[in-house]
Every structure is written in C-alpha cells, then in structure tokens.
Amino acid sequence: MKLTIITCFIIILVLILIKYNSNNLSFMTGKVEVEVENFFQAPPNFICKKDDLACILSYQTYNKDCKNSFGVWKKFQDLNHNRKINGKTLKVLAVDSTKNPNLSMAGNFDGPRVSLVSRYQISNYDGRLNLKNLEQFLNKNI
C-alpha cells in the first residue's frame, strides 16, 4: 500500500516537473486560453470592398504578448465583427504573420499589431490592447 502511494506521488511529481519545464502550467491555474482557430481569420488575398473596413490583428503564436492579447481580441471580435458603422461594414479579423511573412501591415514587427484597413488606407493602433482603447481607436478612425 505504501509503495503504491509513493509511486503515485512520484508520477505526479514527474508530470508537474515536465509541465514546469515546458513552461505550460495552465492545467494548474484553471485559466482557459483562447485558441487562435476561434478567431475570424483573414482569407488569403483579402481586399476590402468599397464599403468595408477591416480591423486586423497581426500576431505570432510564439509571442507571449500576442498570447496575452488573444482573450481581449476574441471579445473585440465577438462585439464588432460584421457591425455597421457609418454605412460601412466592419470585419474584425486576425492574421498569423509567421504564416504570412509578406503581410505589409505587420512589417518587421514582433508582437501584436492592430491595423484598421479600408480600401485605400491603413491606420495602425499603438496603444494598450484592451476593449476600451480598441473601441476608442475605431471611433477616432472611422
């Protein structure tokens, strides 16, 4: 009986050490991370139509700041995707810039980057990524 308890304890300890070394302790926090597959992704060769706007998050899946912004971005998408503003339809999209290296919006930028794109103009957001600031950015630039 004692040997079984000690064996279980050692197995649990080894699993915790493996998780710790992989820098992934999310099973201990109860915090659920947003999967990027849940984002509305920009289709290949996306172009805004005459009456469309697109607010696009350029991210890298390896970047910690990007991962920290995923929850806010998902909420922002849920609130604003396909919303009509001043007669224009807003698309709220995301693009993994590591899979799209020629993306001119992301440039040579490491970290989350938000751009508001119309047919002929790009405005980049450079503030903190929270819902209030993103809404202000939209209101100021639309």
From TrEMBL:
Write down the InterPro entries for this protein, in alphabetical order: Thioredoxin-like_sf
User: What protein name does the entry list?
Assistant: Thioredoxin domain-containing protein
Q: Which source organism does the UniProt entry give?
A: viral metagenome
